User: Fold these one by one.
Assistant:
Number 1:
Amino acid sequence: MSTISRKSALLATAGVSVAALSRMTPAAAQSVQPVRITPTLDGPNKVTGDIELSWPSGNRVDIRSQADKDGAIYLCRCGRSLNKPFCDGTHAKVGFRSREGDDTAHRE
Ligand code: FES
C-alpha cells in the first residue's frame, strides 16, 4: 500500500473523508486521531479518537457531555441503557456478560 493510500485508509478509519483531508492544513491532518473501539469486559464499547456520531436522520449526536476526561465515550452494548446510544451503567444491574469467546482472558 502506498503512503498516500495508507494515510487515506487511516483517516477514513478516523471518520475523515479524503475530501475533508484535502481541505485540512498538513498540521491538522497529522493531528487526526484514529477511532478505536474497545469492548469492555461485561460492559460497553469504549470509543476513542476523533469521533463523529450521528442519529439515523444524519443529525449529529452531541458527545461532549458524555465524554470522560480523556475524551472517550462508552456506547451501550447490552441494549438496556435508558440513555442510548450511551451506556448508563444498567449493564451491571442486569448482569450483562460478554459472549463466550469475547476477551475472556481477563475474566477471573
Ligand atoms: S452497556 Fe452499559 S448500559 Fe448497556
Number 2:
Amino acid sequence: MRSEKFDVLVVGAGSAGVAAAVASARNGARTLLIDSGPTIGGELLSGMTIDGAINARGERIIGGVIDDIVNECRALGGYARELNDWRLIRYIACDPEYMKMAVARVVYGSGAEVRLNTFADDVARNGDRIEGVIVRDKQGRSLITADVYIDCSGDADLCALAGSEMLPADKDTKPQPVSMMFRMAGVDTRPLLEFVREHPEYFAVGESDAIRGGRTDKEIAEEIWKQGEPCVFLKGDADFLGSAITRGEMFPTALIMIQPTSAARREVCVNATRITLDDPLVSRAYGKAFGVLIDQVQQCSTYLARRLPGFENAALSGVAPRIGVRETRRVLGDEILDGDDVFAGRKREDGVAKGCHHIDIHQEGTGQIRIPVADGGSYDIPFSTLIPKGLSNTLVAGRCFSADRRAQGSARVMGGCLAMGQAVGTAAAMASDTNAPADVRAVGVKHLRSRLKEQGAILEGTH
Ligand SMILES: Cc1cc2nc3c(=O)[nH]c(=O)nc-3n(C[C@H](O)[C@H](O)[C@H](O)COP(=O)(O)OP(=O)(O)OC[C@H]3O[C@@H](n4cnc5c(N)ncnc54)[C@H](O)[C@@H]3O)c2cc1C
C-alpha cells in the first residue's frame, strides 16, 4: 500500500477544515487537507450568510482566518457585507461564486496541500493514538500518517472509525432536517421591502431584545427598509406563507429565509426546503431526500416568483452543490459544551473560540426552536470540547465537536466552525512541533490562546 507522512492531516474541507488547514500550515506544519467531494469550502459556497461571527450587539467575535477569506472575497468583488437581519442576529453576506475563489486562494496561499475525491476510509489505532488513516481515491487505498489528525468531517467519521464514543442522539426527536439551498436572480428589492413595511406581521422580526431594542414591528420594518437589502424572513405560521402551506401551494416550512448574495445580479439565497430523516448518515434515505429537495426547490422558487412582490421577474440562478446537513454525530470530548452556558453567554479562561448564534434547532414541518444568547452577547468554546476523549493526537472541530444538542444548535454555524477550525489547526501545528510524540493536551491553553490572539482570533473583550 502506498504511504505518505505529514505533520498534520485534516479530514474534511468544510468551513472548519478549511480554517484548520490554513492555521496549521501557517504555523509551520506540513499539512494535508482531504475531502471526499470534488471541492473545498463546504457551505461557504452555498450562498448562505456567515452567521456566528458578529453578535447581536454588533461586536465582531471571530477574527483571523475568517477575515482573510471574507476580505479576499470582498477584494475580488464578491459582495461581502455585514448586515442586521432585524430578527435575531447580524451576519456576513457573501457572493458564493467569488467565495469559491476566495477560499481556494486562502487555502492554497497558506501552503496546505489539498486532495479531493479522497475519502477517509479506515483508521489504524494503537492505544490512545491514531497511527494512520487509510484513504480511498481513484487510484485505490493508501496510508497517510501524521503527528496530529483533525476530524472536520462534519459527521465525525475519523473519530467514529477510531472507535471514539459518540454523544447519544436525542431519543424523542429526529435530527434537524436536511435542506437544499438555492438562489434567485433579478429580484427587485424596493417592492419587496415596501411589502415588508405594509405587512410586518408576515415576517419574522425582532425575535431578541438585543435586536428589537424596544421597537414595534412597524418600526423594525422601517429599519429593514432603511438598510435597503433583500434580507427578510417569511414566517410559516403567519397568514401569507401559512395560507400557501394550507392550500398546498408551498410545502410546510418554518421560514423562507431570503438573504442577499450579489447586488450586480440582484440575487438572493433562499433557505426554505427541508426534509427530516431518521438518520442522514443512511445513504439510501439521503439519496431519496435529494429528489424531494429538488422538487421543493422548484415549488418554492415558483411560489416566490408568483406571489412575493419583488420576485415577479426573478429566475432560479443556482442550486447548492450538495444537500446541506445540519446534524449527525457528535463526538464525546474531554468536556461537553452545555446549552445553558451558550444561552448564558459564559466566558472561560480556557476558551479558544467563540460563538454567538442563537440556539437554532430546525424541526419537522413548520417547527423551529430559536433561543437568543443572553444580552446579545457571546460564549466561549473551551479547548477541552475539541479534544476527543481517549485520543492523544487527535482534535475535532465543526458541527461534530463535543456539545450537547442545544449547544451544537448554536455553534454549528459557519462563524463558529471557522473559529474552532483555526483553534485546532493552530494547536495541531504546535503539538507536532516537538521531538516527543505529539500530545494535544500538552499544548498549554494559555500558550495556544496567545498564539491565536497574535494571529487575529478574538478571545476576549466582547459581551
Ligand atoms: C441548510 C443549511 C443552512 C444553514 N444555514 C446557515 C447559515 O445561514 N449561516 C451559517 O453560518 N451556517 C448555516 N448552516 C450551518 C453551517 O453551514 C454548517 O453547520 C457548517 O458549514 C458545518 O461545517 P463543517 O466544516 O463542520 O462541516 P461540513 O460543512 O459538513 O464539512 C465536512 C466536510 O467533510 C467532508 N467529509 C465527510 N466525511 C469525509 C470522509 N470520511 N473523508 C473525507 N472527507 C469527508 C465532506 O465532504 C465535507 O466537505 C446551515 C446548514 C445547513 C445544512
